């Protein structure tokens, strides 16, 4: 028997058509690239259990067909990013041996491009053209990116059906923040939680009780000093789960490790935390709501230092410009990167519909001095909110020096980041550096701090008359 005998109107000569007798376990890329190529082009049909070129039916029994489909799904999920929108179905037919099945995979043109095939950590982009699948050209990649740049990850339809009992954590979270009211089915449908066929949107999948993926990953760390370069790491914890569990994990991590103090105001003692609860919560919600969920292998980073907390989220400001260090949080226009996720968080009363979360952070720090004012900065691949530790008397570093990122310095100290920032724009004398650091001009400073930075190429030393000057090597650091 042949394919055209059991499938009506099949276009055998169409360049959107391909068959495989069985999925080759030894050459996964050989058939995965066809799936990616169809999705990057104008779509296509892929049949498994059909002999290539002759279209003769090979087929599977029911059990083998199910195993082949599962293997197909697992390989697509592991190696194609983002997962193409596909419809997988069994086509049944009768043969001499009895009931047989072939597998039909219908792949529409992807609304998000390019679909990337990543195998053994090597990414590739393929395009289907003239009946063959080949590597995409530079021009094709640019065109794909332009066409799909406005498509949000959380609004794409998944292949996971909606089951109400799978969202008990979301239901409880909603009730806790809405005076016990129930999250209605009618509301979920109205915001597009699932489509007409009953399949969840990507954003909704992230709220499932048992969400197992890495899209929601977070990394929480505590550093003994003022920067990551000192290599003095007290704790690194990693977590992934549904969106609600992720929010709670980050809040608990900081609350369990922050400092608490007491200040005296007009004969009244007032307890203060390192980070005001509302400011901390707004920072966590902001990171979750505006994260770029397209970026695989990334995580929200919560870093606690001696003088501050940094919350960094993957992806720069959505359709926004790169920001240097700015204290004008209320002047930042933050557009929604994830409409569905944001709508759910707004409904749960943990996010402002008008986008005024930054204003709440400012309000919580309104009585703080200049050294304790929160600020934010962003690059093309992340944005970071910095909350100063209100219990640390000196506040965060001088705002006139740049914020830098750099690889850990071998044998480094907790002074490295401040020294490199202070010496970035102009050469500084040792006495100036000592005064800035509020330390003595000692042998330790000259040898263990400045000498070590120079030895490892982070500082460049020069002499003018009898004075020694140090300037940061710009090739070893980057302004964030």
Task: Describe the secondary-structure layout.
Blueprint: H1 3-6, E1 17-20, H2 28-40, E2 44-48, H3 62-79, E3 80-81, E4 87-95, E5 98-107, E6 116-119, E7 122-129, E8 132-135, H4 138-148, E9 157-161, H5 168-176, H6 185-190, E10 199-201, H7 202-205, E11 218-223, E12 233-239, H8 243-257, E13 260-265, E14 268-273, H9 277-289, E15 300-304, E16 308-314, H10 339-347, H11 357-364, E17 375-378, E18 382-388, E19 404-405, H12 416-422, E20 428-429, H13 430-437, H14 443-455, E21 459-464, E22 467-472, E23 478-479
Parallel strand pairs: 1-2, 11-15
Antiparallel strand pairs: 2-5, 3-6, 4-5, 6-7, 7-8, 9-10, 11-12, 13-14, 15-16, 16-18, 17-18, 19-23, 20-22, 21-22
Pfam family, one: SLFN_AlbA_2
InterPro entries: ArsR-like_HTH, RecG_C_sf, Schlafen_AlbA_2_dom, Schlafen_AlbA_2_dom_sf
Domain Schlafen AlbA-2: 13-131
What structural keywords apply?
Methyltransferase, Cobalt-precorrin-4 Transmethylase, Domain 2, single chain, six-stranded mixed beta sheet, 29% helix, Heat Shock Protein 90, Arc Repressor Mutant, subunit A, 14 helices, 480 residues
What would you say this structure looks like, in words?
This protein has 480 residues and is an alpha+beta fold. The chain contains 14 helices and 23 strands. The radius of gyration is 28 Å and the shape is elongated. The longest helix is centred in the first third of the chain and has 18 residues. The strands form 7 sheets. Strands 12-11-15-16-18-17 form a 6-stranded mixed sheet, covered by helices on one side. A 4-stranded mixed sheet has the order 1-2-5-4, covered by helices on one side. The protein has a 4-stranded antiparallel sheet with strand order 3-6-7-8. The chain has 3 domains: 149 residues, 2-Layer Sandwich (Methyltransferase, Cobalt-precorrin-4 Transmethylase, Domain 2); 245 residues, Heat Shock Protein 90; 76 residues, Winged helix-like DNA-binding domain superfamily/Winged helix DNA-binding domain (Arc Repressor Mutant, subunit A, Orthogonal Bundle).
